[in-house]
């Protein structure tokens, strides 16, 4: 969004046009990277299940060496047939498969998501309304990290206990003008 705003603020002169070209190139690369490597739907999940590991070349299909064994058991039940979302993080050998509301909403608002991806995100929210919205204003991520994984990921940080504010909890302040009005319209 900052790059798109910068495009609007640049002067129409030689220096501004040079910056504009750099920004457009950066936006193109960013869009490709986010849309290709962070997107998860059933088609992509099916591909991940078939990934070979230890591929290290420019022709590698599994660019981040994500191990198919790292796919969490809850994901198949959570991911609807016609839905999808951007995962929280992709790093070597590991993908954070949790769903993060704010990042996915920003991807829609900033046009990082294609129209089809935006509709798939909204389809997921509608299909999983009870888990993601339920009786609370809005959960920031799903599911919360619990047990042994919580100890490893957070270093036993008490402010990040399961279903607390930073670990799957409700963000009531986010319902007052950013995400919830835009999400409520998708729920029939």
From TrEMBL:
MF annotations from Gene Ontology: endo-alpha-N-acetylgalactosaminidase activity; sucrose alpha-glucosidase activity
InterPro entries in alphabetical order: 6-hairpin_glycosidase_sf (IPR008928), Glyco_hydro_100 (IPR024746)
An individual GO BP term: sucrose catabolic process
Keyword set, alphabetical order: Carbohydrate metabolism, Glycosidase, Hydrolase
Reactions it catalyzes: Hydrolysis of terminal non-reducing beta-D-fructofuranoside residues in beta-D-fructofuranosides
EC numbers for this chain: 3.2.1.26
Pfam families: Glyco_hydro_100 (PF12899)
Keyword Hydrolase in record: yes
Top-rank taxon, per record: Eukaryota
Function in brief: Invertase that cleaves sucrose into glucose and fructose.
PANTHER family documented for this protein: CYTOSOLIC INVERTASE 1, PTHR31916
Family classification: Belongs to the glycosyl hydrolase 100 family.
Protein's recorded name: Alkaline/neutral invertase
Organism whose genome encodes this protein: Trapa natans
């Amino acid at each position: 969004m900052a790059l798109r705003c910068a495009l609007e603020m640049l002067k129409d002169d030689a220096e501004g046009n040079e910056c504009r070209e750099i920004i457009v190139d950066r936006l193109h690369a960013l869009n490709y990277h986010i849309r290709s490597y962070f997107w998860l739907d059933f088609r992509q999940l099916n591909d991940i299940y078939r990934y070979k590991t230890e591929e290290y070349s420019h022709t590698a299909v599994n660019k981040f060496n994500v191990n198919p064994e790292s796919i969490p058991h809850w994901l198949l039940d959570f991911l609807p047939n016609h839905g999808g979302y951007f995962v929280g993080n992709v790093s070597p050998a590991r993908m954070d498969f949790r769903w993060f509301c704010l990042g996915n909403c920003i991807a829609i608002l900033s046009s990082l998501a294609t129209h089809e991806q935006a509709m798939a995100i909204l389809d997921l929210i509608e299909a999983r309304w009870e888990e993601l919205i339920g009786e609370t204003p809005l959960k920031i991520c799903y599911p919360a990290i619990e047990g042994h994984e919580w100890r490893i990921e957070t270093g036993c940080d008490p402010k990040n206990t399961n279903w607390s504010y930073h670990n799957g909890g409700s963000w009531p302040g986010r319902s007052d003008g950013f995400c919830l009005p835009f999400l409520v319209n998708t729920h029939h």
